[in-house]
Amino acid sequence: MKKIYAFDFDGTLTTKDTLIEFIRFTKGSRQMFLGFLLFSPILILMKTHLYPNEKAKQKIFSFFFKGIRIDDFNTLCTRFAQQNKHLLRPAGEEKVRKVIEEQNVIVLIISASIDNWVRPFFDGIDDKIKILGTQIEVKENYLTGRFTTKNCYGQEKVNRLLALYPHREAYDLIAFGDSKGDKELLDFADKGYYKPFRNKKRDAKK
């Protein structure tokens, strides 16, 4: 039977949230801080479940990146990945590289992050991996600041997977996640692994 390996990205394969790190990389810490300060009322409401996660994320993304040429944005994404490989957890990266060599498997990265900066982290093996992330709208070669898909979070992760592979009985699903945004995917899987690539000794001290 075919196997599908589905990996969350932020926090599972990486040590940090890459949206925050990407903003810091492209705009600098000061501008990032001022931007998040501006949106702090919305972020507080989001944390208390009084404002949708998806809308908050899109407002922040639009604030920082609306109006950028898509070619320039993709160049930034590639540079970000190249200069931040240290964000990948070694055990997670090793697992991805190992499973893509198996026979009759599909490897997915299912992430709330934007496809454009997730894919370059897997340069060299990206042709063997499908990236299912939050996708951005581009019109006349410029970012509009809007998303063309739902934020790939929670149930949307399962929805995106089923849109590509609807015959659930035809494959075994092995999923890896680290947060409440991965709960539905982990529950849907035949085998679900929560925070699997952490340094156990280090994490035990936290």
UniProtKB/TrEMBL annotation:
TM region(s), chain numbering: 32-51
Record-linked Pfam families: HAD
Organism: Prevotella scopos JCM 17725
Name of the protein: Haloacid Dehalogenase superfamily, subfamily IB, phosphoserine phosphatase-like
Keywords for this protein: Membrane, Transmembrane, Transmembrane helix
